[in-house]
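Subject: for your reference before the review

Hello V.,

The reviewers asked for a structural picture of the protein, and I figured it would be easier to keep everything in one thread rather than splitting it across files. Below is the amino acid sequence we used in the manuscript, unchanged from the supplementary table.
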Amino acid sequence: MNTTIIAGLGNPGPTYQWTRHNAGFLFLERLAEAAGGSITKKNFSGLTGEMTCGGQRLILLKPQTFMNLSGKSVVQALQFHKLPLSQLIVVHDELDLPVGAIRFKNGGGHGGHNGLRSIMELTGKSDFIRLRIGIGKSPFGDTTAHVLGNIPPDQMEILSRVFEGGREMLELMLSEGLPKSMSLFNNRNYLEG
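And here is what came back from the structure prediction:
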């Protein structure tokens, strides 16, 4: 059985728990919960859990290093499991996508996202799969306050649907490949119930 690491990015601690920047953590928690599991084992400077999906063994990883040092945790997990970057999926919040959108992307730059930047710096590469969760841009132009702001209740409802869609995307990607998952899901919008 193939092993894939799914790293959800976020910041540890109750202060950040419900912030937009923690969309990766929140998605992973939903994924584990749906499979009847949890992400509580201390490993790789993070918290880990395991599940199977699409015929693959998934290592769920929530780095506890704070966002700017996410790469440290991700690299430890890849090295321990002796996995190439092609067996890594990074789930993160994305300013360039509107709320209600979730998309796969393979490779590319970090777009100013410090978690992605850290992973790229420590691996020396950018060719890994990302699952990008739209949080939209701040209408006031203050990016830091926006990403570290709590998710409003109406957007939590939308995110709940986004996460469910993301779970379906992931299952299809693991069983039938990235191109098929991207073509079926990348243009969906989960704003409406």
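For the response letter, the relevant points are probably these. The chain has one domain: 3-185. The mean pLDDT is 95.

Happy to draft the paragraph if you're swamped.

O.
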